[in-house]
Amino acid sequence: MKTLGIDIGTTSISLVLCELEERRVLKAWTLRNDTFLTSPKIWEKIQDPGRIMTIVSQAIEEIQREVPDIGYIGITGQMHGILYVNQAGEAISPLYTWQDGTGDQPYREGKSYAEHLNQLLGAKFATGFGGVTLYAHARRGEIPREAVSFCTIGDYLGMQLTRRKSPLMDITNAASLGFYDNEKQGFRRKDIEVAGLDYEFFPRVSRERKALGRTKDGIPVGLAIGDNQASFMGALSDRENSVLVNIGTGSQISFLVDSCEEIPGMEIRPFAKDQYLAVHSGLCGGRAYAILDAFIRQLLTYFGVEASKEDVYQQMEQMARAKSPKAGGLIVKPFFSGTRENAEIRGEITGLDLTNFMPEDLVQGMIMGIIDELYDRYKDTKTAGAGKLQALVGSGNGIRCNPVMQKMISERFGLPLIIPDNKEEAASGVAFEVM
């Protein structure tokens, strides 16, 4: 059977056509997600859900003209972000992405909305989590009056394809919003009500993986799965013994655990009914490397030199390759937008001396800083299950497009790095995970 997987990412939208029985990717398409909207509120990071639906629906129509016998559609997409829907199941707000900073805005008593919510509930919600964005909007009176619920962009695509009027969430997406109970596999009514929110406003959660409905052409459509879990499904053949390092716009390290017990420094996310992912997410990841690229290109303009992003990336890799990393080199902490635990922390460069304030040292230091944010959490969790892992798998364009980063990751973790042939791990993960 041929299946289609769709991944709505922050900057790109990927579709893969797969042969289910052979678990083989037949063809892949990557489209630009150019739907960001300009907001007068500089902290908002929002996209146009209507434009996203147009891009996806047109792509599906073109693929169906070429391949009319698609038997299943799987969906994934950027987690944490939310949009509001009305009674007819239509979006009546932008998509507030995982990068949205509304939760970091000042609320009262010198605390942000996220800090106040965490103090109120004794929780560890991060800005960008849909529940924090919802809480801030509620306090600010910014929830649309016609809104009856909210959902992720993946859930909304499922609603549009199946003509469903209310969202139904898989546990992976539900957990990404906050207010979620891993043990009970549902939203925490008490916490929601203590926060002054309406429990009935929250979407229904499905504890079972099942088809959400069918398209107008009768194709079954699966519940949308969180992109982190979907990438894990698509990248790893040996899920039990592998650790996944993903570096794209952000960065993540993930491995399976059998319990939802807390692990210091890690977030425990549902994976399947009785399995969980231990995850640490960096807010910058590959974006930190892009910031360095922008710095170099800006510097070049002062000398009358115009260089493309591709040219500078290539030169940065050559600079990093030309000099072996050494002890006592630059230490770069690329916390440009804070961390999930501390939105106020910022990046720093230390270890400067008379010999290492050179471009190649800065490039190497930036790469190692991106890696170390993930490795430091990994090494601290070996007693919680990471110690038994035997395979290191890399995914995301930040890794795929940078051989120097690949080598440095392998050396830091002390394991050979495996990079799957399939580049669209999340989209293929949901294409293979037929419900």
Automatic annotation (TrEMBL):
Record-linked CDD domains: ASKHA_NBD_FGGY_SHK
InterPro entries found in the cross-reference section: ATPase_NBD, Carb_kinase_FGGY, FGGY_C, FGGY_Carb_Kinase, FGGY_N
Record keywords: Kinase, Transferase
Annotated Carbohydrate kinase FGGY C-terminal domain residues: 273-431
GO molecular function (one): kinase activity
Alphabetical list of Gene3D superfamilies matching this protein: 3.30.420.40
Matching Pfam families: FGGY_C, FGGY_N
Lipid metabolism in keyword set: no
Carbohydrate kinase FGGY N-terminal domain: residues covered: 4-239
Keyword match Protein biosynthesis: no
Family assignment from sequence similarity: Belongs to the FGGY kinase family.
Name of the featured protein: FGGY family carbohydrate kinase
Protein species of origin: Ohessyouella blattaphilus
Lineage: Bacteria, Bacillati, Bacillota, Clostridia, Lachnospirales
